[in-house]
Amino acid sequence: MRLEGRVAIVTGASRGIGRAIAERFLGEGAAVMLNSRTEAELKKTAEELKKSARVAYLAGDVSQEATVSRLVEQTRKELGEIDILVNNAGIYGGLKGLTELTAEDWDRVMAINLRSAFLLTRAVLPGMVERGRGAILNISTISAKGAYPLSGAYAASKAGLLGLTRAAAAEVSAKGVRVNALCPGPVEGTAMWKEVGEGLQRAFQLSKEELAQETNAAILQRRPQRPEEVAAAALFLCSDDASALTGQAVNVDGGEVFY
Ligand SMILES: NC(=O)c1ccc[n+]([C@@H]2O[C@H](COP(=O)([O-])OP(=O)(O)OC[C@H]3O[C@@H](n4cnc5c(N)ncnc54)[C@H](OP(=O)(O)O)[C@@H]3O)[C@@H](O)[C@H]2O)c1
Known about the structure:
By secondary structure, the protein is α/β, with parallel strands linked by helices. It has helices at residues 16-27, 39-49, 65-78, 103-131, 152-172, 191-204, 208-217, 227-238, and strands at 7-11, 31-36, 55-59, 84-87, 134-139, 177-184, 249-252. It has eight helices and seven strands, in the order βαβαβαβαβαβαααβ.
């Protein structure tokens, strides 16, 4: 049990990568607060993951300060002091070229992917610093490091998340808190990759098979990643096994981006 006695918040935990991370953390003994916006889906996930009383959930948009305050307060009340924060909630925001992107599109993606991580980090850090321990993990993407079309707002928001990761690490690593990021490649079976795949097919007039061929050709393992593979890396970075890792952005991409 690598997270025995730890309390974690995982945002965007109703499905996909966030759900896989929550499930892995629970299996390693953590108590986990799940969050996403859609209450019915979140409640269903919480019920499915509930093996003990150590799962809680709170629905709400984490780009809003009021939700963040409630999430942190409720976690402390129901589960205890927060040891781990996983900023996973995110949207792609549609596949658009920069000339089609509206200012509203841009602001929405920035708010959900980046502002939310800032708000939550700011909310949990004082407690972590006071107790001299904590791990924060930001789920970014290889789009933050590579160059992919129709991803302007998404790529910029996720590159911002890497900047936030390093700045936060610089402020709190000497106080016992580690801050890292993960950069997955395409993750199969997720709603996001379905949206992106369908958008790329439309934009470049590719069949599903042609797109899979092109995508896989850029990956050394010649396959997409699975949510469980991202969750395994998340577990490592949030556990004491990664005691000397901070300020890092680790690629979980089967070999696509090399820095
Ligand atoms: N899938 C991929 O190929 C891939 C690759 C690299 C990185 N990532 C990153 O991994 C993370 C998870 O992606 P995924 O593929 O698992 O996506 P997903 O299946 O679409 O899940 C996204 C989760 O975030 C929640 N969410 C979205 N906006 C939110 C908000 N404002 N407040 C709270 N929760 C919110 C969603 O629920 P509601 O909509 O109900 O709120 C859902 O639980 C994202 O940050 C994404 O950028 C994904």
